[in-house]
Specification:
Layout (H helix, E strand, L loop, with lengths): L2 H14 L8 E6 L2 E8 L2 H12 L6 E4 L2 E2 L9 H14 L9 E6 L2 E8 L2 H12 L6 E4 L2 E2 L5 H14 L8 E6 L2 E8 L2 H12 L6 E4 L2 E2 L3
Parallel strand pairs: 2-3, 2-4, 6-7, 6-8, 10-11, 10-12
Antiparallel strand pairs: 1-2, 5-6, 9-10
Length: 218
């Protein structure tokens, strides 16, 4: 695919996405590397634009340079944003102990620090904050609380793989070093590969996953 065709596909996809006002988003493409420029009215829009571009076939990498320009009626004081962040983390069912999360807000830019037990909790915290009005950016520094029982982590992941009807668990090798998991072996489809990786991320204490799984030829 040529860069010109890829650029048009991205522009069309941005225009098609209902959660984005693409009028002020610029797209350039060089050798499959996409640069997004311009401005949007919320951080949620900025994030959505990147995700939309990433899903277009032919995109090799993305440089995201979109600015967030909040409308006057959506600008919020930092202390009010901080209060909203704490409340949404406290209300979120996915985060078992929000008291372990520290929040800093500067000019609408939110920094999350501290520890959580699961990778999904780290993602859930960022997703919740992303939706708040007045937020201009997020730096997610949350760390996964280490769990050093390597045998227990490996057993939990293997059991999760066996419970999933989509996965041939015996063809997947699970290696655990500290809190890092490496997956090796063969799967039958890209969907099976993604499901296996999600199972590894779901284990308590896992802070990193390296996926060396290959999709077998049918």
């Amino acid at each position: 695919m040529s860069d010109i065709s890829l650029r048009q596909d991205i522009l069309d996809e941005l225009e098609y996405e209902p959660s984005i006002d693409a009028a002020n988003i610029g797209v350039t493409v060089e050798n499959g590397i996409v640069t997004l420029t311009g401005h949007v009215q919320s951080f949620a829009e900025k994030h959505a634009a990147e995700q939309v571009a990433r899903r277009v076939t032919g995109v090799r990498a993305i440089a995201e340079e979109i600015a967030v320009r909040l409308p006057a009626h959506k600008k919020t004081a930092d202390d009010e944003i901080a209060s909203r962040v704490l409340k949404i983390l406290d209300w979120g069912a996915a985060i078992s102990d929000p008291s372990d999360i520290q929040v800093k807000v500067e000019s609408g830019f939110v920094t999350l620090a501290g520890t959580v037990d699961f990778y999904c909790q780290r993602s859930a915290a960022e997703h919740s904050v992303r939706q708040l009005s007045g937020v201009t950016g997020i730096d997610n520094q949350l760390r996964i609380r280490p769990r050093m029982d390597v045998v227990d982590i490996r057993h939990g992941i293997k059991q999760a793989l066996r419970r999933n009807a989509e996965i041939e668990a015996e063809d997947i090798e699970v290696e655990v070093s500290g809190s890092h998991v490496t997956l090796r072996g063969k799967v039958q489809s890209s969907r099976e590969r993604i499901t296996a990786e999600q199972a590894a991320w779901s284990a308590k204490g896992v802070s990193g996953v390296t996926d060396y799984l290959t999709v077998s030829d049918k």
